What we know:
By secondary structure, this protein is an alpha+beta fold. It is built from 6 helices and 4 strands; from the N terminus they run αβαββααααβ.
Amino acid sequence: MSMGSYTTDEMKERYKYLLPTKKEFLRKSSALDKTLCSWPLRHAVVYWNGELGLCCTDFDNALRLDNIKEGGFLKTFFSDEVIKKRKMGFQKSFDLCKKCSLGNADFMGLNIKF
Length: 114
């Protein structure tokens, strides 16, 4: 079960009884685990106005990337600025990414044990 990226703190507190408490059922079993999100590396989001988005959970395009109207998709997607932001998304550096449950989900993100 996922509480979701846009769940309020009040909702999380109210429904936390639905989440597992046993360590073997938790997604992260160690503080040494580092979750990386593969969505910015493997997927592309283009909004109705031509702006690139980081991933599908950025519903309102809060993490604005460049627009593909002038340079086209490939040139824009592989521009230095967009690559920099995609790397930051991969490392879950944005506030949106830190709250996101999709990139933390098993088999959706990459779980690295250090």
